[in-house]
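quick one before i forget lol
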Amino acid sequence: MHAIRNIIFDLGGVVLDINYNLTRNAFLKLGFVDFETVYSQLKQELIFDLFETGNISASDFRDVLRNYAEKNFKDSEIDAAWNAMIIGLPEERVTLLKKLKTSHRLFLLSNTNEIHEREFLRSITSAFGKNILPDLFEKIYYSHHVGIRKPQPEIFKRILEENAIVAEETLFIDDSLQHVEGALRTGLKGILLDHTKTALEKLLAEIPLARH
């Protein structure tokens, strides 16, 4: 049995507090009546995958949403609704990660996009005076920068190879089952963070972690 020496964290829903319903409700309020059929946490239309891998621009993304809705939304209206899900980074989670970093190598892996990145960095900078994510994680992987998204095995293999870490000693924590399954298929250990049952703090307390 290999001890856990490295932890890869998902961002939204694990490190960063989010609420998908807020974005759904915001788009419904705008008049996007069938938004749930286009986007959900578990199943996405191709447009979202393309946006999360940097293969289309924010401008293209907005145009596609306008076409789906058949409404002439303003850019600012789309961005505000799209970003509504982002709640923020709790200070107690920062404290937890700082403590964990003293004994483990921590990495961040997020399926995200340029509109969300601007907003969560703005939120974090506003709350902490700067973007503190590089202080918490050894390396950060955003899907739209690297061109690969979870659960593709290539993204997990890339993190392992670039950082010379062993899959069996690496834990991946995510709140989406398909992403955890992707990590498991790549040889990592994976845990689904089920918000109805377990908080991140409690989950980490129950995991046998190696101490350097």
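fyi Residues 16 and 89 are 5 Å apart (CA to CA).
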